[in-house]
Specification:
2 domains; 26% helix; globular; 24% strand; single chain; Rossmann fold; six-stranded parallel β-sheet; Quinone Oxidoreductase, Chain A, domain 1; 359 residues; disordered C terminus; alpha/beta
Length: 359
Amino acid sequence: MKAFVFEGPGAAAWQEVPDPLVEEPGDVVVRVDAVTICGTDLHILKGDVPEVPSGTVLGHEAVGEVVEAGPDVRGVRPGDRVLVSCITACGRCRFCREAVYGQCRGGGGWILGHLIDGTQAEYVRVPHADLSVYPLPGSLASNDAVLLADIFPTAYEVGVRNGRVRPGDTVAVVGAGPIGLAAVATAGLLSPDRVIAIDLATGRLDAAKHFGADAVALADEDPGRLVADLTDGLGADVVIEAVGAPETFELCTRLVRPGGHVANIGVHGKPAVLHLEDLWIRNLTITTGLVDTRSTPTLLRMAAAGRLPTSPMVTHTFPLDAMREAYDVFSRAADTGALKVVLGRPPHDVVSLRAADGA
């Protein structure tokens, strides 16, 4: 089969690799029908995630069909259409028993496209399948469902829930990329008084309005003044960092009110200064986190019911073998207007390639 393989900082290629196989009794092999690219993949390519070894197939989000299942798999079977979660969960370790799947110590956590081969391929092996893939309702299109593999649960769990958004709150989201837009949308589920989106790109701020932002501000035009004006000088109750840069994290700590919450979602490749000389007296709660995906079943039901704005998030689609072009478009979002790019098989190609290969 072919896959998009990381070859070291700045280098990756769509190339032939061995077909994945069921290696453990709880594994499944999924034929990938739709896959997307995450900002974390760009961080890996930049060298910001040094634990990813050269030769790893990238990607941790996909929709596809189960083609093989190990003897211990009970939740799905060959022929089932499934969502491949960005988080793998063994279900037995201390953290999994507490539903903190992102910290799994039993061979799970964020492993796809990180510690083992990932989803940007024609096929992917998924360990611990019973807690790591989700059967999909037929009504949910693949391009919509694939957004439930990572960005929506991440925005909701690490941003909205960790930030403890409550009815009547003022919520500021710094960064209106895909994760930030998903945070805007899922914050709205909890009836805040207002949601303010902050970004450097006017196009993304326009998108934020579509996803539910009540006010927007350009990051280089004193967003603190807008937040202060809308809160009588108090500051936002919850500020969500959705970029992963030192300057945006520090901005978040300036926008939040005393006693408020800063919820960091962004993947940081450089140190950020924590100004405790200013913050120690302000009773702040600052949270970080890796998504656990415990909310995925709920979000899937909401998406199937049309309660999540998934379709507008997908701005570009490509065939599966156009991975290099898709990365280029996604990495130049300021020029291309890309939010999420989705790559998929042509409809005629969805019948078993494995069978055609003699697998």
